[in-house]
Amino acid sequence: MDTTTITLNILQALQAMSLFELIGALAGVIGVWLAARQSVWTWPLGLVSVAMYVVVFYDARLYADMGLNAFYVVTSLYGWYVWLYGGKGHTERKVGRVGKLELLVLIILGTAFTLGLGYFLENYTDADLPYTDSATTAISLIGYWMMAKKRLENWIVWLVVDTVYVGVYTYKELYITSVLYFIFLILCVIGYRDWKKSLEEDKKAQLVA
Questions:
Q1: How many domains does the chain have?
Q2: DSSP summary character for residue 89
Q3: Domain with 131 in it
Q4: CA atoms of 36 and 190, how far apart (whole Å)
Q5: CB 121 within 8 A of CB 133
Q6: What's the pLDDT tens digit per position in 28-63?
Q7: Which InterPro entries does this entry report, sorted A to Z (predicted)?
Q8: What is the Cα–Cα distance from 130 to 65, expressed in whole angstroms?
Q9: What is the pTM of this model?
């Protein structure tokens, strides 16, 4: 595919892009940037983004992603609360690391979720890419849980799943959303770096105290 064809495809995608996808993409980028900065305002921005993408993914017949974003509406409220009051003495929560048992449980639940939802979507709906859709949904749920708990490793999880999403959304001709997830990849690197620095600074402060 030559450069001219690619440019025409992008222009056509921009023309066809719904207002929902535009708002969702913009709110998503700002929300993830705020998450990297550990700003609690990431959660209300996230609420706007996921609400828009419920509509976008329904139109694209990516039902697992649609359900995922509907679930995010609830978990965003939970994450908002935890970041504000989930620390010691109901103070702001600090960055931490995921425990071995917690990680094992998340992997088992994620695998079971992928197989179960993938089977359902493949056999009982007209969903496109049922198992890929289910796997990215499961991994995203794990990442979202880790982010709500302020686990450093959430950024690694998002880095993996966002790489897959770039390919999926390009395949589904959701070009703006594909670009959005490429930007997320960059923000994941920034987020991991900044959160790791914050974690190390908190540990040094505790040693001094």
A1: 1
A2: G
A3: 3-208
A4: 7
A5: yes
A6: 899 999 999 999 999 999 999 988 888 888 887 777
A7: NMN_transpt_PnuC
A8: 10
A9: 0.79
